[in-house]
Amino acid sequence: MQDFFFIAFPYIALTLAVCVGLYRYFSHRFTYSSLSSQLLEKRQLFWGSVPWHYGITLILIAHLLPWIFPGAARTVLGNQTRLAVLELTGIALGVYCVFGIAALIARRLPNDSPARAVTSPMDWILLLVLAYQVLSGVGIALFERWGAAWYLSTAVPWLRSLVSLHPDAATVTGLPVFIQSHFISGFVVILLFPFTRLVHVFAIPFEYLWRPYQVVIWNRDPQLPQLPVLHQIAASPRPIPLNPAEVQRRQLLTRLGILVGGISAAIVGIPSLAFLLGLRKVPEVWRTLGAADSFQIGHTVEVSFLDPTPLPWSGVTAKTAAWLRREGPDQFVAFSINCTHLGCPVRWLPNANLFMCPCHGGVFYKDGTVASGPPPKPLATYPVRLRDGMVEILTTPLPITTV
Hints:
403 residues; 2 domains; four-stranded antiparallel sheet
């Protein structure tokens, strides 16, 4: 059953979304829009539409960027402070979306609501699925902490395997059912794309960028009382031709806007494309942890070090941590501080010779292998070397085990 939901169903949803979406676009072009009810309830719609669209757009971007650029995401999330800030921001955006979707549903509930009259059964289904999607997302953020970190080692490999046509659901089948339902409902939303007004996401009027200006002229003076229609037509002014200088100015501003937009897109797009194609590698830097003699054989201690690419203004937030053990005169091993379940920082219990995750009860042996609990993999390790009597660790954004 899990193979169906995490391997077959995503392909089914995407295939139907593309094929039925194209059929609807070419066969029923008029319906390929949001079929907006804004004219019916503009004020009521504002409190639902604005929070929903702004909130969900930022959340989708936050989900897509780690999937497209996992290396850069590990760099950003490798620090606990940055991870906590992003988690809190995500929760705030999620609550913002919940408020928006609740307002969009509430405005359709009264029997005399004009919005209800134009809401189809499929629209109701879509609203309920979207409501569950954002509510489950907020629930995961609140009760399954550090999702931004474990998303990299669970959902990202699964999604990338689907894109590469070598599906592998091993990284998500061990997650709690609540999290799995969030993933599945995401593909349910994709499945509903061509059957609902959600298709307006792809109805982007690019032609507005180059079409001629549309001149709108009042057929009456807005300050005067309403006149009969015939008088309005008779009194309507003739179109006033535009000044050639005004036309040239608008053309100059249009071209300048296109130039600035193109430069901005290049500034953002070129580095992003370099990450995507693997042309720009995430740096790995050896950091000194201290003199080898300062670490006792058999003892496990917490060490801190700078990220591989700290920013000048990062301050203390540029530091991350690991557990370092000296196993012999020239032998050291460093474990990632993040639990492989959901990314919580693990603690070392010297009396029990165990690593313990305080969030969900994961336990690891002293060699990092799983002893009990929900963690699916052993603790990740950093490369360590001894150089000129100093212990050095090879820093990476966020080590992820492949065992």
